[in-house]
Amino acid sequence: MTAYRAPATRPAHPVFCTIVPPHVLDHVSRSSDSALAGPARRTLEQDAAQRTRRRITTVRMPHATPRALDEAAEKKPQRTIYDAKHKESLPGRKVRGEGSKPVKDATVNRAYAGLGATFELYLSVYERFSIDGAGLPLDATVHYGENYGNAFWDGERMVFGDGDGEIFRDFTLPVDVIGHELTHGVTQYTANLEYFGQSGALNESLSDVFGSLIKQYGLGQDAAQADWLIGAGLFTDRVEGEALRSMKAPGTAYDDDVLGKDPQPATMDDYVHTGQDNGGVHINSGIPNHAFYQLATELGGHAWERAGQIWYDTLTAGTLKPDTDFAGFARATLDAAASRYGESGEEAEAVRKSWSQVGVTPAEQADKKESGS
After folding, report:
1. Within 13 Å of residue 73, how many CA atoms lie on the same side as its CB?
2. Does 348 score more than 60 pLDDT?
3. pLDDT above 80 (res 9)
4. Is 282 noted as a catalytic residue in this protein?
5. pLDDT tens digits, 73-84
6. Which residue ranges form the domains of the chain, and what is each CATH number?
7. Is 120 designated active site?
């Protein structure tokens, strides 16, 4: 056995990231129907407690405790699924390990498969060995809390609620939810984007982008075939909505009496200035989301190839600052496209066009130089 070691990168600062935005749960918590409001309030309370815990443990223990990694398991996932049994203590009881047969609990099996699908995309397409690039074991806990209406990455593991059965179904159902949350781990180990304002919106957007790519890769879809929805199938039949977010048409994912209307903007003309949700990280992520959609459909083919490669190169190049804004990120994607495909290639032109369509002007080259590596 050899000791697991993370790659030599800038110090990672884990953050608590949920798939369902606080503004959605807050809207539901105000419902006159106690069957809807009660679980939403409890979910918000549990999220607040986990967020506080993450801040405390980040100060006390900024990096996860190294764990052993068998050399014989090189380039293979190391997945472990735990069952919280509807309690709020983590990780819970181990119910399935790497290589073991499926169990009777479909939620456990979906979590196991979703971790594997995420691992597979990053390894097969981008040659990234797990989310940290060095074989980090992937842990997940299912059946968290009572009627918990969310899923989150806490810097160490994935955690899934079963939903309340009224608004939300089981959070292991959409594979892009799993990919989204694990990609927060990839960002944590690479660009380490601060979870506030535009850098936080980029953090969220990158998770949506790669979450969608993981779903598309598994289905073998090209950019034209993909639905570009995040969390499709998560809502129950009583909800007027398709998903949590739409990358193709931000602001159209749902319009419901209980949930309210999807507030995501597609362009900078409708950028939302707010002090809630860390400066609107789940709302304004619609802008870079839509830029990626525009790029992927402009280039055509499989989105995880050229479009995804440009975004991955940008995320992992080491040139992004933790507080990078949309303009800085746009500049970095242009540089990544030029570096891989040539400055005069159709890829660089498509990147430039995609940002123009959402109203973002890439920062000047000088900004990139000042950012360092």
Report:
1. 18
2. yes
3. no
4. yes
5. 478 999 999 999
6. 2-189 (3.10.170.10), 235-371 (1.10.390.10)
7. no
pLDDT digits (tens, 9 = 90+) for 254-292: 999 999 999 999 999 999 999 999 999 999 999 999 999
Buried b (16+ CB within 10 A) or exposed e, 291-322: bbbbbbbbbeebbbbbbbbbbbbbbbeebbbe
Angle, vertex CA 166, rays to CA 237 and CA 161, nearest 5: 110
Q: Is the pTM of this model over 0.90?
A: no
Among 143, 282, 290, 302, the active-site one is 282
Tokens of 233: 């199938």
Among the options 166, 181, 204, 242, which is catalytic? Answer: 181
Partners of 93 in the β-ladder: 83
Res 302 pLDDT > 80: yes
Q: How many whole angstroms separate alpha carbon 253 and alpha carbon 338? A: 33
Distance CA(327)–CA(30), nearest Å, equals: 36
pLDDT-derived band at 68 (thresholds 50, 70, 90) equals very low
pLDDT at 52: 54
Contacts by residues 69-76 (CB-CB < 8 Å, ≥ 24 positions apart) = 69/1, 69/2, 69/3, 69/4, 69/135, 69/137, 70/1, 70/2, 71/1, 71/2, 73/98, 73/135, 74/135, 75/123, 75/129, 75/135
Rounded CA gap, 58 and 21, in Å? 22
**pLDDT at position 3:** 37
